[in-house]
Design goal:
By secondary structure, the chain is of the alpha/beta class. It folds into 3 domains: 162 residues, NAD(P)-binding Rossmann-like Domain (Rossmann fold, 3-Layer(aba) Sandwich); 152 residues, no CATH class; 96 residues, Rna Polymerase Sigma Factor, Chain: A. The chain has 16 helices and 11 strands. The chain has a 7-stranded parallel beta sheet, sandwiched between helices. The protein has a 4-stranded mixed beta sheet with strand order 9-8-10-11, covered by helices on one side. Strand 2, helix 2 and strand 3 form a beta-alpha-beta unit. The longest helix has 31 residues. The structure holds NADP nicotinamide-adenine-dinucleotide phosphate (NAP). The site of NADP nicotinamide-adenine-dinucleotide phosphate (NAP) has 28 residues, from helix 1 and helix 6.
Length: 439
Amino acid sequence: MAELWPGLGGPKISYISPPPPEAWRRVWPRAIAILGSTGSIGRNALAVIEKHAEKFKVVGLSCAGNVEHLAGQAACFRPPCLAVLDGAVAQKLKNLLPSGYAPRILEGPEGYAELASLPQADVVLSAQSGWTGLSGTLAAALAGKVICLANKESIVLAGDLVREICRRTQAVILPVDSEHNAIFQCLAGRGQEAAYLVLTASGGPFFGKSREELATVTAEQAMHHPTWRMGAKISIDSATLMNKSLEIAEAFHLYGVSSSRIRVLIHPQSIVHSLVEFDDGSLLAQMSAPDMRTALANCLLWPICESSGAPLLDLTRAGQLTFHKADTEAFPALTLARLALSGRGGLSVVMSAANEAAVELFLQGHVSFTDILRLVEAAMQAHSEAHADSPGKPFCPPLTAAGLPELREEVHTLQARITRLDRHSRRMVYQSAKGDTCK
Ligand SMILES: NC(=O)c1ccc[n+]([C@@H]2O[C@H](COP(=O)([O-])OP(=O)(O)OC[C@H]3O[C@@H](n4cnc5c(N)ncnc54)[C@H](OP(=O)(O)O)[C@@H]3O)[C@@H](O)[C@H]2O)c1
């Protein structure tokens, strides 16, 4: 399988994890645990799994509070473990399960981490939304799992740490995010000939609008993505282009390339999911209908290629495919991502956390659409000023632990550090939105 891998150790592409062991190719049915099974990614994953029922055995499912939906999924797939937000939610869930089926119900952050490291799981899908996905991704990586990674925030917050854990435990990352999955497919075995990674972006519902026009858009308009149906947070991120910023950081960490080798192209039709430009000037693109089942099937069934259930792309009916330069004046998010990556020292954590807080405030009607990035920028500025003396210092220093227990301990300490900075950045945004000083 190494021949299909994007490239390890550089110099041009230094992928975040090793490939799975050769024997993994023959593991069928694959036992899978899903973090965030009730979300948009989780539901699409279960649709792919249902289509290939003989190839999978679901051993764990989870939600935050949507127990009605989780109970339905659990009744259908009968996993031995479920995980939910807390004890009260667990009680509600118990009352909804069919008689004769009594799975273990895990609770809270420890419960999600346990689900992510179930000994019987061959694969873990990390698909919780936002920062909450970090602990599950880290737990799965520490347990040496093959991780189908949808939760991009985990990599933005702790890419260096995830890379180091994968090196130590031989955990594997398969990228679900459609752009990174497209790049993964284009790079197969050719990483050391890659000049540029080109991420495509739909441009969101406000493509072509000026900064002035954006000031008055509503949450309802922002949620209405022209080509994808997704969860609330990622929909708003797509409208501000912060989603693309997070994806620049994701590509930086996944493929081990500098941000100057990651380009962004606006492509409103969302048919070309991303491209790689090779040294000879040729461009390889991955195309399919905008449906997450394609990327999910690629990861869940990897390295075999079978139907995902997504509609086939008929290029004679796709219409014109267009490509545009990003308008960084109206959508300054892309500039923030490059700034965050040049600074390291935790600036990516600040960007991601401040954005989550600002999106929450926008969805609750407390700030305007253009305030989202203004607040993120202010938080990043405040952090840079406070750490002006150590701009290049890595936020997650290389792990030094000798064995697995010490490694867990060290990861736990670094995770706590990320969590503290995350909380502090959110607080800055809430205070700044209230008009207080940003300290
Ligand atoms: N949707 C896409 O097309 C897409 C594409 C690429 C990447 N991604 C990434 O995939 C991840 C999931 O996106 P999504 O669109 O599927 O999100 P979503 O529809 O909002 O679903 C999020 C899932 O996480 C659970 N969850 C929410 N808050 C939680 C918490 N505090 N603790 C534990 N679980 C929690 C939700 O449970 P409840 O249902 O109970 O709330 C749900 O199962 C995100 O990181 C996103 O950026 C999504």
